[in-house]
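Title: Comparing notes on inverse folding

I've been comparing how different people in this forum approach sequence design from structure. To keep things fair, I'm posting one structure and asking everyone to reply with a full sequence. Here's the target:
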């Protein structure tokens, strides 16, 4: 009886993309969705991205509710490294943590004997399930290295992006950025399916199907 109740609860519980392992699993197993996500969220023309390679495709733990330190996605596209992470808990100092992780990825590129010229631009994308910057209404914040006095950016080194879900989902816009973030924010099967209803965007239909498939997989939800 106890096992049957446990199985029933697992079947009823919905695992959306705010679960980091679901988030990572969808993009690792659907390279076309990852490529489209990067293109839409960073405003990089899709045809300019080329091949997307995930450097850390491990999907540990095996269970959705298993414990793991980080489940970020580190992707390589041409001359750029992009690190993508979803953060649900409102952790104090997350902006500093994001910068710290960015610095580690940038530093790891340079092997012994290599020239600094080989360093690739490193972009940090952080999807937040809470409001990080309470003093502003914009859901998207972008940080770069910028000389204020001379109004000059060092363009080929750094970008830090923060996408705040609570702010985005309140807005009525349905451009591709908003639809991606609403897809990630879905907290039930009804939320998910209603989002895809009457919308013909290919990425949205594929994303909804991917999440539904994971929720139908009882082994994944054990």
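Reply #1:
Here's my take.
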């Amino acid at each position: 009886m106890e096992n049957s109740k446990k199985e029933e609860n697992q079947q009823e519980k919905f695992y959306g993309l705010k679960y980091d392992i679901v988030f990572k699993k969808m993009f690792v197993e659907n390279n076309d969705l990852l490529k489209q996500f990067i293109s839409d969220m960073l405003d990089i023309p899709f045809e300019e991205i080329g091949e997307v390679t995930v450097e850390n495709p491990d999907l540990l733990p095996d269970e959705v509710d298993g414990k793991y330190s980080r489940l970020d996605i580190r992707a390589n596209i041409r001359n750029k490294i992009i690190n993508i992470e979803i953060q649900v808990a409102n952790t104090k100092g997350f902006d500093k943590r994001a910068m710290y992780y960015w610095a580690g990825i940038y530093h790891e590129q340079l092997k012994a004997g290599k020239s600094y010229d080989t360093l690739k631009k490193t972009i940090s994308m952080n999807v937040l399930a809470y409001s990080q910057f309470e003093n502003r209404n914009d859901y998207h914040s972008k940080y770069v290295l910028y000389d204020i006095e001379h109004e000059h950016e060092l363009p080929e080194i750094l970008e830090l992006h923060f996408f705040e879900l609570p702010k985005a989902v309140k807005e009525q816009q349905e451009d591709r950025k908003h639809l991606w973030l609403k897809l990630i924010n879905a907290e039930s099967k009804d939320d998910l399916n209603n989002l895809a209803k009457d919308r013909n965007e290919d990425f949205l239909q594929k994303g909804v199907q991917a999440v539904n498939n994971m929720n139908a997989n009882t082994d994944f939800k054990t």
